[in-house]
Amino acid sequence: MAANIGWVDPNLAAGGSQFAAQSSKNVGVNCKGFAQEWGKLTGDGNGSIYYIAQIPSNAVIMQLQVVNDAAAGMTGCDFGFYNMDGSNPALSSGAAGTYAGNALVANLDLHSASTWNAPVTVVSAAVGLPAITAKRVWELIGIPEQGQNLIRDSYILAMTLNTAGTATPNIGVRCLYIEG
To answer: What does the domain layout of the chain look like in residue ranges?
Structure first.
């Protein structure tokens, strides 16, 4: 199978905007969220990258959940970030940075089916992952304070299939974040 790289929402591929709709605003906290669902295609093999959403660089991800149909062999999935042109973010040295495509989780096993009643939680402030939920996206990517000139306005939240398997499940992702 070949690697497939692209947006899960055709509107985004056409250059449409997809910043999440504002869900609430309290005492200076701007909480936003989005959900995306798509189907893995037969030809989507190892190395396929699904661009899920555009997310601001100053976002702090509070929760990221994924659900999927049973997917035999889909045992290695990464969640992380790419630049808006699909390239890997660079650190202040100008060289390619550490692999930001797995900044949230590496090799997540999604071969078992899950539902929105019992999703796979990738990130959650409730389960005590302060190393992730206390950082903005640009910090998770690894850009140091002195590299502020390298920070982009937004990045792509993406899922990469390291071990794709042969099944063609439906996949859903839901994310809540604070911007600012």
So the answer is: 5-179
